[in-house]
Amino acid sequence: MEKVKRLRSDWRFPTTLLCICGFFSTVKPLEPFLIPFLTGPDKNLTIEQVNNQIFPVWTYSYLSVLVPIFLLTDWLRYKPVIIFQCVMLFITTALMRWTEGVSAMQAMQFCYGVVTASEVAYFSYIYSVVDLKRYRKATSYSRSIQLLGYTVGSVLGQVLISLDLMSYNNIVVFTLVLTAIALLTTFFLPMPQRSMFFHRKHSGQRASNEAAKRHKDGSEDEAYKSNRSNTSVGNKGEENVQRVEENEESDETKGAGSCSQVVLQLWRDFRQCYSSRQLLYWSVWWAMATCGYNQTVNYVQVLWEHVQPSQNFSIYNGGVEATSNLLSAATAYGIGFTDVRWEQWGELALGGFSGLGAAALFLMTFTGNIWVCYSTYAIFKCLYMLLITIAMYQIAADLSMERYALVFGANNFGALLLQTIITSVVVDSGGLGLDIIPQFIIYASYFLAISVVFSVRGLFSICKAQRIKKEQLSVNRNQSESCEEHRF
Fold it and tell me: Alpha helix (H) ranges present in 368-400?
């Protein structure tokens, strides 16, 4: 019994369970073949119905539930929302298997939007149950295992389809079994005793202890920087938060008054964070680029079907997704070994690489060769992962964990809001309802506009920095000459 208690109190126990849940919930063998499944004999839907009526529902659903789930996640302390996410994923997969028609598939997409919005619980849970010095490892494990799950799912789907081992319907049933394993695992997760906003006990003391631990460990990696409280943007605002919390009762449950105080404090923190011009620029790119990336990834299978409609190239979709995921992971990992002053060159890099992404999208759109289309998709995905990693690092470097979670949520909400506007105007049958080629021309032009804006901004920042440097050198030279004159 004592061994069981020690095991449950160790940081490896919740991390392992969360990784198991994350792995089985992301192994989706059918996802690279979703368009052939929906438009094939199993569902008998048309490309136009899938593109203009069904897929847009995910965007609307995601936007409508994102903020309520963000607040509920913190209030309920993560675990209930993780369980709810797996339940909704199970319902999504069941609807995909046993229902037919446009309305049923729209309901399926609504449920999947709820699943996507609930991912905030998965990414936040680990910080409430492990010590600060374990953040880096726990974060690495929980994020890497999801990427592994997506990759295994893509490879597995490719093997099952290429060797004709399972039909699409049987693959969906197999996915239900994997989802059930993930759901069962969530019930064994330890219940956190604190959360980032609603259940913060003795936060002032905890911040001091965390600072002491950080000093003792001497670690300056990215995960630690994202949790620094002493160098956060707007330290005065954070000190006010601590004073308010230290005067409040540290009860397990909070009332409605506490909820309103949390929302008010979130708004104050939001204003403090985005008062930093540097953080604002990086966040604007984050929101805009993520919007374009999501639209591209969501509708790229429709483009692939359009490029080679007469040949069954869709059997390679799983291999393409697996390859692009692995290359993206390698790109994001490799950026940690670069020695570049991103605070100076970052905005120009955002503009330049966004331009390359726009070129990849234009080539993907106008090529008639499916292999060129596959290759440029992988390049586009790698470029985005490279830049979003830099952006996340730059934003996290001077924020506490609580404020990073707030900025992370706000940036993603901005991206989703932009995505909803584009979807309703460009994609939805109630708007323009454009075909896939005009859609991708718009997405490529969108990234080209991002490239122009940030390239100009980056060049301006560099020129300004060089001018200030020259002026400082001139001042120093004059002071040196003046000292020499006085000496003689």
Answer: 370-396
Residues 30, 42: Cα–Cα separation, whole Å: 13
Q: What is the pTM of this model?
A: 0.77
Residue that has been written with the tokens 């490279």 in this structure: 386
Pick from 120, 114, 104: nearest CA to 59: 114
Taking the C-alpha atoms of residue 235 and residue 226, their distance in angstroms, rounded to an integer, is 15
* pLDDT tens digits, 467-481: 877 777 777 776 766
> Which residue carries 């597995």 as its tokens?
156
Per-residue pLDDT tens digits for 80-93: 999 999 999 999 99
Measured between alpha carbons, how far is 334 from 324 in angstroms, rounded to an integer?
Answer: 15
Q: Is the dihedral of CA 43, 49, 55, 61 positive or negative?
A: negative
Nearest to 357 by CA among 295, 309, 411: 295
Give the three-class secondary structure for 400.
Answer: coil
Q: Which of the four pLDDT bands, split at 50, 70 and 90, describes residue 57?
A: very high
Each residue's pLDDT tens digit, 117-130 = 998 888 788 877 87
Asked if 450 and 90 count as a contact pair (C-beta separation under 8 A), the reply is no
Of 291 and 134, the one with more pLDDT: 291
With a CB cutoff of 8 Å and minimum separation 6, the contacts of 462 are: 344, 345, 348
pLDDT of residue 254: 43
Could you give the CA distance from residue 264 to residue 235 in angstroms, rounded to a whole number?
17
Q: For residue 339, give the amino acid letter.
A: D
Are 106 and 54 in contact, with CB atoms under 8 Å apart? yes
Q: What phi and psi values does residue 31 have, to the nearest 5 degrees? A: -55, -40
Question: What burial letters (b/e) apply to 123-160, b meaning 16+ CB within 10 Å?
Answer: bbbbbbbbebebbbebbebbbebbbbbbbbbbbbbbeb
Tokens of 47: 């490309």
Q: Give CA–CA dist 472/480, Å, rounded.
A: 12
Contact by Cβ (8 Å): 355, 455: yes
